[in-house]
Amino acid sequence: MLAAFGTLNSLSVALGAEPRLLPFQGRLTDAQGQPLPGGTRVVQFKIYDAPVGGRAVWNGEVHHLTVNDGLVNTVLGTRADLSQVDFDRSLYLEITIDANQDGEIGPADPPLLPRQSIIPSFFARESANTRLLGGYDWSPLFGTNNPADGTLLDSKIRDGSLPGAKLQPRSLHAGLLQSNTLTLATLAQEVLDLLVPPGSIMAFGGNTNTIPQGWLLCDGRPVSSATYPRLFQNIGVAWGNGTDDADPSTDFNLPDLSGRFLRGSDGGSGRDPNANARTRSNPGGNQGNRVGTLQNDAFAEHKHFVFLSGQTGLAGEHTHPIHRSDGHEIRWGDGSGNSVDRIDAADSVGADPHRLTAAAAGAHRHSVILSGDSNATGGAETRPRNASVLFLIKH
Question: Distance between CA atoms of 209 and 271, rounded to whole angstroms?
């Protein structure tokens, strides 16, 4: 009569190691409890789902074991696969020893009783969990104090706390995502915010009733930072602080781009010579050389000169009045450069003391010079050729 007393270490099985192996250590004795003498023995191992009878869940394998003062050691699973064995339930190891020492297991070699319970596998699993959880109550984090699948509550994952650097390529796939946790709309919104951040302005060729989701018409109206927090974070009160509206909840203005062209901010380039004189769009908004300010239309300073010269037509004989300037002399010459007469400022001739009449002249022409403003031309404003669109801002 032979007996076997064994201890099983199923820690590698409980932790899901691949391939699954089950270390075994036992002591073989005779009927009087004395250890078997040293040598080699053939031993067969099987696993059942009951201590007596039952069903074999593992058909087992045969080992040639070296006995040393009754002690034997081996690792089960090296010849027959253990991967289909459920070690989360109570199992029993049946051991059969080559009693007649003919080198094989046969009908003359009955199994040893009782079967050995594989209870240590449960202790191994609990021990592993205890080391991992450190004795703390982890139910607020996992939903249970001893999670079987390691599921972490999504409410405990802070937004933006999982950066892309922590994800290995192809490590995130649909099978790992909880149902409805990542929708196409959510993914599209995240991508859109990266490509077109809040505060971006675009031209839109539709109507006010077809403005796409996520965009607002640039009509200058006051809005609330609580309603559009991301837009307010990016533009602030550059276009006004919303105080011109009766609603106290409005605290910033949208840009008012109705009928306006857009111009890049000067930024110190000097291309806008009047940048520092730019005015606010709305009360509380920016002014001077900053985004959100306005300028009225203007012409660059310039002049137009109009000059017309020529001669009148040939006229018949007539005389011209000669006006004199008081205090100056008027001398009459005889054609040779000699003065023949002199009229002082106090002199008078005829009834008009300030008027002399020249002698009649023959037919002659007069030079004419005209100057003045040209006729007005143009429309109500200065503009290039243009097309009307709606300006929208991303919120």
Answer: 38
